[in-house]
Amino acid sequence: MILKVSKEQAALRRQRYVTPSGAEAYVSTYMGSNAMELAAIGKPKNSMADRATTAPMAYLVEQSAGSTVEPHFHQVDQFQIFTGGSGHIGTHALKGVTVHYAGAHSPYGPIVAGPSGVQYMTLRRNWDPGAQWMPGAAATLREMPDRQHVAYTSTPMSRSAAAHISALKCTVVTEVIPSQSNGLGAWMVQAGPGAALQDNPALSNGLFWYVLTGGLQSDDSTLGEGACFFFSHEEPPFEFHAGAQGVELVRVQLPWV
To answer: What does the pLDDT look like over 232-243, one tens digit per residue?
Structure first.
């Protein structure tokens, strides 16, 4: 399975959402569905009984200025790519581009937005019924045998200027979350105009590409900044090409276990 969604397509599913503690956000759903979208349109979480049609999950959160999303956890592994605004997640400052990973049942946060708010993509391979808020959900964690807390936060990175990308003569790949033996990892990829980008989804339990700058040639069109791609592990190795202005993207692999 290969899915590809532009920023403009996702904007058609943009909904306002308010957390239980009052933090306001707008959520633009790229793939699948999510608890925030369901709440915004007045549907219960259990209305998504067929999980095969609700995964993978990809959505953009625009968290309002000065707001706080309280510490919580999810039941599945996830990446978050912070791409705009400022603030912090836990003790980590958010500026430029920051990649955060939280394993299933691994609490994280709070996410505190700065004066211009903060924006981030959330990426999951499987359906998740929504945030489990701390400290109220702590008892659930204590009852789980052999539970492990797994979380990584990358060093903040600057988004490259379009002129820099378009002048690249080679492809540059930078590891931003160290790769693990179970397939987990995250990378920044920068490529000049027309460069071939090859990948192999079989190495992970789901592979996402998120375009930061420039675009990717897909069939007869170019998907630009804000586009999101998902490749399931059943897909064979593939090749895309950078658009006329080159491309800068974040590549994340979800773990097998």
So the answer is: 989 898 889 999
Question: For residue 208, what are the CA distances in angstroms to 80, 130, 253?
Answer: 11, 20, 7
Residue given tokens 């993509």 in the structure block: 121
Domains of the chain and any CATH numbers: 7-153 (2.60.120.10), 162-253 (2.60.120.10)
86 has pLDDT over 70: yes
Task: Assess contact for 207 and 184: CB atoms under 8 A.
Answer: no
Q: In sequence order, what are the beta bridge partners of 108? A: 72
pTM for the predicted model, two decimal places: 0.93
Q: What percent of the chain has pLDDT over 90?
A: 63
Alpha-helix runs per DSSP H in the chain:
7-11, 35-40, 138-142, 162-166
Question: How many Cα atoms are found within 13 Å in the side-chain-facing hemisphere of 59?
Answer: 27
**Contact, 232 vs 201, CB < 8 A?**
yes
Record the tokens describing residue 17, joined without a space: 């959402």
Question: Does residue 65 contact residue 84 with C-beta atoms inside 8 Å?
Answer: no
Question: What is the average pLDDT across 6-32?
Answer: 93
Query: pLDDT digit string (tens) for 22-81?
Result: 889 999 999 998 888 887 777 766 655 555 556 799 999 999 999 999 999 999 999 999
Pairing status of strand 78-89 against strand 14-18: unpaired
Q: 84 - beta bridge partners?
A: 119
Q: Give CA–CA dist 84/138, Å, rounded.
A: 31
> Residues with Cβ < 8 Å from 171, sequence gap 6 or more?
189, 190, 191, 192, 195, 197
- Contacting residues for 51 by C-beta, under 8 A, at least 6 apart: 126, 127
Which of these, 153, 140, 152, 28, lies nearest to 75 by C-alpha position?
Answer: 140
